[in-house]
Amino acid sequence: xxxxxxxxxxxxxxxxxxxxxxxxxxxxxxxxxxxxxxxxxxxxxxxxxxxxxxxxxxxxxxxxxxxxxxxxxxxxxxxxxxxxxxxxxxxxxxxxxxxxxxxxxxxxxxxxxxxxxxxxxxxxxxxxxxxxxxxxxxxxxxxxxxxxxxxxxxxxxxxxxxxxxxxxxxxxxxxxxxxxxxxxxxx
Length: 187
Ligand code: HEC
Known about the structure:
Layout: H1 2-17, H2 23-33, H3 36-39, H4 63-71, H5 82-88, H6 128-131, H7 139-147, H8 149-152, H9 166-179
The protein binds heme C.
């Protein structure tokens, strides 16, 4: 009967936080630790956010706002997988911040990049290739850029080989739109 109690507790706990935690991992943890049944319902208010996705910026959007922002994106980005996008952003993180007011690293801060003219962030020293690119960043340009920066803009100093899976690019672009303050055109 302990088993049934543990299962029930695990289910309830999972139901509450499944949106932000991996359900399978949690269930596995409960089984391994087997302490879930002892705590009963009192541990129902487990922390609701995974540590990985809680940017510290004061105006950081909530998960609900992010979901709404995602849904408002044009296809195919509205079906983007934000968690895959976030994990693909790991490739960018060594050179870019994406938070509002974040520092330039090797590459420029990416907050507000959608709708910004390429190579135009004040205070960052771009290559001529990017500075003179002559377009404004949107999903289509970013898709080509991320596929192969040096083929798309020869002479760029962004030394990133490219993200070759188109679906990964969709997910990453959706993630960037949601994270960098992109606003869909007013209805
Ligand atoms: C090794 C460092 C490095 C990595 C990794 C990297 N970048 Fe860059 N990025 C740069 C540099 C440097 C520039 C400036 C390029 C230039 O001026 O030629 C740049 C420029 C850009 C720009 C143009 C910004 C503007 O203001 O015009 C975008 C967009 C961008 N990177 C996105 C990304 C994304 C998304 C990733 C991850 C998939 C990524 N970068 C990975 C270094 C990097």
